[in-house]
């Protein structure tokens, strides 16, 4: 369990609510926050620079709530969580609770609250192209990922030239992998990457066919996702040398949560299988 800084029941008077009276008259809200961070260096040095200044966090929460007007406390909680994660880099994950005492629902009520957990996630993305200016398509995609407020590019592998996979006759690919830290959840990340592919002019007409840009989510933390639109870990990654070779360059000890092998071990297994064919 990570170290935590805990703020309980910060009182803020602000104007959030569905009803006009709530926005005009305002009311008291109680905000609690649990910030996951490493406090050891601060504890040893006794220096605030190595910790999260909870005073600044409290004042930032107050500024956000007092300078905005939202209908829903769900929106209040999301705004607080995203802002704190972006502005306080030592906070890796957090829990935010926004409590609304005496909410006007027509019957007596002590309070209603929304509590959410949000944080940074490490994801690995396979990148590829075999049409047009392949390097330009890939470089532009990485730049657009980096430009996202809620996503940081952490590592970029070398690009390798590879033969097409899947039996469709086409030009050779440039392939690589990148590691990112992101606040996007898996489906949000998928939608964003598919939009980048669309902007690059990708046409999904031939399965495993040629493409201007290919962006695949390979891993997302140690999360296992099996949805109709998305499977994590990528179900073909352990069979593809053009994925494992660049991925090993940036994350050799990354553990596949289902196969329980590192990327290096997956690559060695695949190399052995290919030699024995």
Description:
By secondary structure, the protein is of the alpha+beta class. It has 2 domains: 4-119, GTP Cyclohydrolase I, domain 2; 121-275, 2-Layer Sandwich (Alpha-Beta Plaits). 32% of the residues lie in helices and 28% in strands. It has helices at 20-25, 40-45, 54-66, 73-87, 134-146, 186-199, 241-250, 263-275; strands spanning 4-14, 27-36, 93-101, 111-119, 121-129, 151-156, 160-162, 173-182, 214-220, 225-226, 231-232. Strands 5, 6, 7, 8 and 9 form a 5-stranded antiparallel beta sheet that branches. Strand 10 and strand 11 form a beta hairpin. It is elongated.
Short description:
This protein is α+β, with helices and mostly antiparallel strands. The chain has helices spanning 20-25, 40-45, 54-66, 73-87, 134-146, 186-199, 241-250, 263-275, and strands at residues 4-14, 27-36, 93-101, 111-119, 121-129, 151-156, 160-162, 173-182, 214-220, 225-226, 231-232.
Q: Quick one: CATH superfamily of the largest domain?
A: 7,8-Dihydro-6-hydroxymethylpterin-pyrophosphokinase HPPK
CATH architect. name of the largest domain: 2-Layer Sandwich
In this structure, how is the largest beta sheet organized? 5 strands, antiparallel
Which bin fits the share of residues in helices?
25-40%
Alpha-beta content class: alpha+beta
- What number is the mean pLDDT? 92
What top-tier CATH class of the largest domain fits best? Alpha Beta
**N-to-C order of helices and strands:** EHEHHHEEEHEEEHEEEHH
What amount of the residues lies in strands?
A: 25-35%
Number of helical elements: 8
């Amino acid at each position: 369990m990570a170290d935590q800084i805990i703020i309980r029941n910060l009182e803020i008077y602000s104007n959030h609510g569905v009803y006009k009276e709530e926005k005009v008259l305002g009311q008291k809200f109680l905000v609690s926050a649990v910030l996951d961070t490493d406090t050891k260096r601060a504890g040893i040095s006794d220096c605030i620079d190595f910790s999260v200044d909870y005073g600044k966090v409290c004042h930032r929460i107050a500024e956000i709530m007092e300078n905005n007007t939202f209908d829903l406390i769900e929106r209040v909680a999301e705004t607080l969580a995203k802002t704190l994660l972006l502005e306080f880099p030592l906070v890796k994950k957090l829990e935010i609770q926004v409590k609304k005492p005496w909410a006007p629902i027509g019957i007596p009520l002590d309070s209603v609250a929304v509590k959410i957990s949000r944080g940074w996630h490490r994801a690995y993305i396979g990148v590829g192209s075999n049409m047009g200016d392949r390097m330009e398509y890939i470089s532009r995609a990485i730049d657009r990922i980096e430009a996202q407020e809620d996503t940081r590019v952490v590592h970029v592998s070398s690009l390798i030239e590879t033969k097409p996979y899947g039996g469709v006759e086409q030009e050779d690919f440039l392939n690589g992998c990148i590691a990112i830290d992101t606040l996007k959840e898996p489906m949000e990340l998928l939608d964003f990457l598919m939009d980048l592919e669309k902007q690059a002019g990708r046409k999904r007409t031939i399965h495993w066919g040629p493409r201007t840009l290919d962006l695949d989510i390979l891993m997302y933390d140690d999360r296992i996702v099996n949805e109709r639109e998305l499977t994590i870990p990528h179900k073909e990654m352990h069979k593809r040398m053009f994925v494992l070779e660049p991925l090993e360059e940036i994350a050799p000890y990354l553990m596949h949560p289902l196969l329980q092998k590192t990327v290096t071990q997956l690559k060695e297994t695949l190399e052995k299988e290919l030699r024995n064919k």
